[in-house]
Each structure stands twice: as C-alpha cells, then as structure tokens.
Amino acid sequence: MTEEIIIAGFGGQGVLSMGKILAYSGVMGNKEVSWMPSYGPEMRGGTANVTVIISDERISSPIINQFDTAIILNQQSMDKFEKSVKPGGLLIYDPNGITHHPQRQDINIYQIEAADEAASMGLTKVFNMVVLGGFLKLKPIIQSEFIRKGLEKSLPKRHHGLIPENEKAIEKGKEIIKSVHQLN
Amino acid sequence: MKGNEAFAEAAIRAGADGYFGYPITPQSEVMEYLMAEKPHERTGMVVLQAESEVAAINMVYGGAACGKRVLTSSSSPGISLKQEGISYIAGAELPCVILNVVRGGPGLGTIQPSQSDYFQSTKGGGHGDYRMIVLAPSSVQEMADFARLGFDLAFKYRNPVLVLSDGAIGQMMEKVELDEQRPRFTEEEIIKNTPWATTGKTKDRERNIITSLDLDSAKQELHNHALQAKYKLMQEQETRFEMISCEDADYLIVAYGTSARISQKAVDLLRAEGIRVGLLRPITLFPFPTEIISKLADQVKGILTVEMSAGQMIEDVKLAVGCRVKVEHFGRMGGIIPSPTEVVEAMKTKIIGG
Amino acid sequence: MAEITKEDIRKPENLIYKKTDLLTDKPLSYCPGCGHGTAHRIVMEVLEEMDIQDKTIGIAPVGCSVLAYEFMNIDMQQAAHGRAPALATAVKRLNPDKFVFTYQGDGDLAAIGTAETIHACNRGENIVIIFINNGIYGMTGGQMAPTTLPGMKSSTSPYGRDVHMMGNPLKMTELVAQLPGTIYVTRQAVHTPANVRKTKKAIRKAFENQKLNKGLSFVEIVSNCNSGWKMNPVQANEWMVENMFPFYPLGDIKVND
Ligand SMILES: Cc1ncc(C[n+]2csc(CCOP(=O)(O)OP(=O)(O)O)c2C)c(N)n1
Ligand code: SF4
Ligand SMILES: [Mg+2]
C-alpha cells in the first residue's frame, strides 16, 4: 500500500497540522511516512500545502506531482491541484468559499462541509479534524487506535485535554462526507 | 522530526560541545530546537546565537582550536559569509561540522530549496588550496547520521566537514532512528586525543599554536603538500555512494540529496515502462565517487545528471566519464524542485532519444 | 438641501488627505498593524514635501522591509544583510549632492551590521539612518534580536531572554550618540497620530541636516512586530508601551545644531 496525499488550503486552516497528525499516526501504525510542507513567508495567511506519503515500503521521492488523494480547502488550491489527482484518484473538498467546483470526470469527488460542521460544534479549531475524518472514511489506511496515538504525539501535552474533541470531530467527518461524482 | 531538528538532536547526542549560529531560513529550526532542548542542562553543551555568520564561524574556530566538538549551521547566503573563516579553519587544520541547508541563489535569491552551492562546497568556497569532506544527506535519517559521522571524520582528519543539505530535506519530516547519547570529551581525552589543542601549556610540553600563517614560503609549501596528501587519503578512504538498480542498467542517473530521491521515483517509473535505468547517488561529494562512475560508464549507454542547479556536479561526472558515453544535465533552478515525471521526460529526450 | 454624492466628496477642493505619490500602489506585504507601513509612509511624505524624490537614493535592508523598494517610489538599492550603511557610504561619497538614507531593522542594524553601523556613524557619513526597532527578527519567524528585552520570549529564547546566557539588549541609539560623527540622534514611535507627527518632524530634521552637510542623523523608531510577538496588533502596541518604552525611552538623545 502506498497513499500519496496533498493537503492544501489557507495558512490558518491547520493544513500542516492535519498532515502532521496523519504522518504521526502512520508512524504509530508502523508505516513509512514522509511529510513535506511548503514553507516561508507565504505561510502568513497565504496558501499552505503539505504532501504526505504513507506506505508499507521505503518511500522514494517525498516530492511528487501526481497524487492519489487531494484534500482541497480553498479556491487557489483547487485551481492548482485539481489537475494533479491521478486518474481514478480521489478529490475531497470543502465547498465553503469554492466558486469553481471541480470538473474532472475521471476521478472520484467528495464534498465535506467541515467549516460549517466545526462551527456548529462550536469548535472552529477542529475543522481540520472533520476533514481528516472524511478522508479516513474513504481511505481507512490507518486504524483509529493509531490516530489517537498520532494525536498524542503531535499535540503538545498541554493540549491533550482536547483529544476527545478531536476524535469526535473525526467521527463527525466520517458521517458527513458525501459523494459528488463517482466513477463506476 | 524535521530534517533540521533531527540534525540538531543528533548533534547533541554525538557529544557536541558547542553550537554557534545565526538565524536564516530554511535552517532556523536547528538553533530553535537546540535552544528549546536546553542542552546546557542535558549534556553541558553550549548554544549561542551569534551576531552574524562571520562571528559564528570564528567562534567555531576558537572552540575547535581547544579540541572541542563544535558546529554551526546556516543557509547559502550565510555560508558565503563564513567562507573566510572556513578557509582559516582548513588552513589551521581544525575539526568542525558545518551544515548548509541550501536555498536558491545567487544573492538573497529565494528561501526555497536548491543545490546550487555544489561548486562552493566541493571546490573550496574560500581562498587557498583546501578541501572539505562534503556529506550529502538525502533523508531525515541521514541528516541525523551525518551529524555524528561528520564529527568523527572531522577529528579523524583534523579537517572541516560540510553537511550539504537543502531546504526540502531540512523542512521535511520522516521517521528517524537516533543514536544513544555519547558523552562529551573529557579534559583528559582532549589532551590525549588532540594533543595539538590549546588547552593551556603545561611544563611537560611545548606550547601549542593554532595558526594558518607561515611567512616562510618553503614551510608554507610543505604545509600545502601535507594538506594535499591528507585530501588524497580522504579520496582513498572516505568515498561513499549508494547504487540503486545499477546491476542491469542500460542508462544511469547520477544525483544526490533531494534530487536523488526524486530520481529514484523516476527510475521506478522508467522501469515500469521496461527501460532499465539505474541510480548512482554520491553520498560524499568530496571525495567524489569518480571510480565507480567511470566503471559504470563502460556498462551504460548514457548518463543523466539531475541537480537543482544549472549543472555543477555534471562537471565531475564528465571528468569521470571522459568522452565514452553521452552525459547530459537536467535540473530546475530558483528554488523549483523537479518532479519525477520531468526527470523521466528528460531521460527520454536527452539521453535515450537524443 | 441636496444630498451629498460621492462625486461631490471627491472634488479636489474637498481633499484633506492623500496617499503620497512616493508610495507605489502595490499592497504592503506587512502584517496588519505592523509599524513598517507607517514608517514607510512618513519617510516618503518627507521626501515629497522636500521635493527631493529625484535626488534621493534609498538603501533597503534584509528583514521584513527587504521589499521596501516595492513600496517606495524612489531609486533604491537592496543591500546584503547588515551592509546598508556601507552601500550608503559609497553612494553618498560618490554622489555628494544626492540624498541618501538606509532603512534597517534591529537584526540588520544592531547584530550582523553592527560594524557597518558604528563605523558609518563614527566617520560621520552625511546620510540618514532609519532604524526600525521591533525587538525581534520578524522576517525569519520571530528569533531573538540584539534588542530583545530581558525575559522576552522568542523562538530562540523560548524560555525568555536570559541575559546571563544570551547577553544584554543593545541600545544602539545611545551607543551611536557617543560618536562624534553623529549630529542628530533620536528615538521615536509611530503607534499614535501624535507620535507619527513627532517622528515625521524628526525625519524631516534628519534630511534637512543632510541638506546642510552636517553629518549623520540617526532616527530610531520603536515599533511592534505583532506576528513575532505572537499578539494581535492592539495587544502588541499596548505591550510595546508598557515594556519597550521604559527600556527604550522616546525622545531626542543628541541634537547638535
Ligand atoms: C547573511 C544572512 N544571514 C541571515 C539571513 C536571514 N535573515 C533575513 S532577515 C533576518 C533578520 C531580520 O530582522 P530585523 O533586521 O530585525 O528585521 P525585521 O524583519 O524585524 O523588520 C535574517 C536573520 C540573511 N538573509 N542573510
Ligand atoms: S513579521 Fe513583524 S515586522 Fe514583519 S511584517 Fe509582520 S509584524 Fe511587521
Ligand atoms: Mg526586527
């Protein structure tokens, strides 16, 4: 199994930390992982993205231009990465703020209204975990016990009290993700 | 762990005595990690933010001259500033580790990854006839491993060792296994293992002087001969490389660091199409794996070098190959990382079809 | 009475304030609330009021204001980190009839560029140095600067600046005031309209000094770096008033008229 994922959105959306939690969970599940962020001043409110690869084998290139899954959280990232999903691959996006919806016919497309859901949970900070839940529903590549361990590893100790809320958000994400375009 | 953090942690565990640095993207995590870890409490290691790279490298000179394990890190513009100090360190034959997390140049350039400091690193960026051992990590694991290996080689040869990384490896996270904590040198060990160090003249020995100066040209020439002999020894003993899928290869890619990782994926993609390509990854850039490349040149029909530069290492590959087979360069500049599919394309158009 | 339309408001005779043409239309890349933007504006207003755009050469540093040349509509050079006063020295010596200034952060001016700063001041180069002191390295992500206050946290002083290990904050402005080459040395701020007016006056005075070939004028502006300090802009300005000003008191330090 090798899963090559790009997560892309605004700086403040928790894009990098979602990738980090996914990567740490992979490590806990004894997989090979790589986490390759975009970096620099562009991260101040601009766009941010991270490539996460989770594999049973040694990872060759941590930098790739074709992805099994793209998780897209703003319009700029949609413009940039819709075309980078491998044919037959998966695109997950939050329609909030998206004006040009994805058009590709050769991939599976899902929507997740994570921003709204997180807001209605009263926890805008867990937005990224709702998205992560949606992804894990479709690609259960990591068991939930390892996700928990991944959360413990990537969150600073003083935030460990928030783990149950993060887990709740992940479960919520699994419920609310919905298909928009399905390959048959 | 990020590559930069892995390097910092490994340096503590390698028994480093001192780190001196100045912030610059994309390597500021090295000092940030060290400051957060409080190594002065863990091992007694000193960590100091200097007022400039010039000061930092001269602090390294001072520490190394006392027989201590000292290091510094920076990125391209800061490494350029350090060149004078590095030349003095090489001239005075002092051991130290220098990390360059390369970004695109020239000038202030960009903060994105690049490999355009190859010439500066391998041909001597400062003045005078000197060489450093240059280790090129291509994973977070090697960032950690080369901190320790760097110290060991530096002390073995009384020579600066450069770890030549880049922004991508510095910033990325991968699994890494770290060595156990090694104790710092004791005063007795320093006196015994590095008798040349300035530790205070005792009655039982002559005074120790650390200098790169000798105004007597005859003596200075002798000193230069000794340095050259040392560099030759490094070439004989320390050349390191990795070969991937080379046994049956019809074509070869030569690439180091991040480019090697990308090229490895390109090798997989090309082999999936039935094209037998191998990858030779130099791990030491000085000494350069000339011999093995020369040998492979007899086996393959063409060689592609992949570098994030305008083509610098290709000159060393060409020297190894002579005119026996075609050698072409593919690369991106200005902080752009080539993609595996671009490498595949380059192999097809420049080598196989060309 | 007839309603006032937007067109009425926009009539030239109703104009009470206008962005100076010496600032380009490029949106500032600074964080909202950062002092750099205001400092840029008043320097450019002074040049406009003195009508010396065509005679001025500015030197940009390395730091958040590395892109000052994108915003200042004048001829500019971009220096290596810390070296702006060296560039300015040559520019002024080779073009004595031009107005020359540097615009530098505290890392640039008081760490890596200490030597260039002190020697340009000591030689009494006939230039203006504008020094933005925000107590931190903004651009590289909030590392300790030579000006970081004792106990203040930064990414390379995560437990607060311990002066025994990391040294004391450097009062560069008081230091250069000791040198015979400086003619006018002052410390100002731009967090309130009143302070903006005072700072503008100081900058005007500095350039007038240059016109009269009097020597080096040094204008420090104590500023916030809300991003680096991990505060919102309002908190950052309050923190600055409470903590920075007692250590870096505002006002003229040396005036040789
Ligand atoms: C030789 C060299 N070393 C380090 C850097 C990285 N660097 C860029 S800006 C900066 C500090 C800027 O701080 P300051 O001067 O206080 O400006 P601010 O961003 O706070 O306005 C550093 C260390 C560089 N560009 N060149
Ligand atoms: S990082 Fe600090 S100095 Fe730089 S623009 Fe933002 S607030 Fe201003
Ligand atoms: Mg500053």
Descriptive overview:
The complex is a heterotrimer of chains A (184), B (354) and C (257). In chain A, helix 2 (75-81) links the parallel strand 4 (67-72) and strand 5. Chain A has a seven-stranded mixed sheet, sandwiched between helices. Chain A has six helices and seven strands; from the N terminus they run βαβββαββααααβ. Chain A is globular and about 45 Å long. The longest helix of chain A is centred in the first third of the chain and has 14 residues, at 15-28. Chain A has 184 residues and is an alpha/beta fold. With 354 residues, chain B is of the alpha/beta class. The model of chain B has no long low-confidence stretch (mean pLDDT 97). In chain B, strand 9, helix 11 and strand 10 (277-282) form a beta-alpha-beta unit. In chain B, the strands form two sheets. Chain B has a seven-stranded mixed sheet with strand order 2-1-3-4-6-5-11, with helices on both faces. Chain B has a five-stranded mixed sheet with strand order 8-10-9-12-13, sandwiched between helices. Chain B has helices at 3-13, 29-37, 39-42, 53-65, 76-91, 118-122, 140-157, 167-171, 187-193, 217-237, 257-272, 290-297, 314-321, 340-352, and strands spanning 18-21, 46-49, 70-74, 96-102, 133-135, 160-166, 173-174, 241-244, 251-254, 277-282, 284-286, 302-306, 326-330. Chain B folds into two domains: 3-187, 3-Layer(aba) Sandwich (Rossmann fold); 241-352, 3-Layer(aba) Sandwich (Rossmann fold). Chain B has 14 helices and 13 strands. Chain C is an alpha/beta fold and 257 residues long. Chain C has a single domain (30-255), classed as Rossmann fold. Chain C is 39% helix and 18% strand. In chain C, helix 3 (68-71) links the parallel strand 1 (56-60) and strand 2 (75-78). Chain C starts with 5 loop residues before the first helix and ends with a strand. Chains in contact: A-B, A-C, B-C. The B-C interface holds B 22-25, 28, 31-32, 35-36, 38, 40, 48-49, 51-54, 77, 107-108 and C 62, 66, 78, 80-82, 107, 111-112, 114, 137, 140-141, 143-144, 146, 155-159, 165-166. Magnesium ion is lined by residues 63, 105-107, 134, 136-138, 145 of chain C.
